[in-house]
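Tip: read the tokens left to right.
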């Protein structure tokens, strides 16, 4: 199965107040790919979990 990740560049704040950069969305897998400040690797969360824990920041 081939992954088709939609590239994004959006900022969200988690429930601890930390700002993360969402870099992509995998519609087929319902996954959000994001980077936390200071982390070497990208993080991935199921869409339902991401929506519960993060809020989009205004531009």
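Filled-in amino acids:
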């Amino acid at each position: 199965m081939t992954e088709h990740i939609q590239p994004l560049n959006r900022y969200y704040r988690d429930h601890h107040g930390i700002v993360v950069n969402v870099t992509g969305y995998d519609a087929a897998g319902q996954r959000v790919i994001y980077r936390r400040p200071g982390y070497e690797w990208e993080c991935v969360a199921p869409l339902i979990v991401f929506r519960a824990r993060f809020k989009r920041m205004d531009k």
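The chain has one domain: 5-40+47-52. The longest strand covers residues 5-14.
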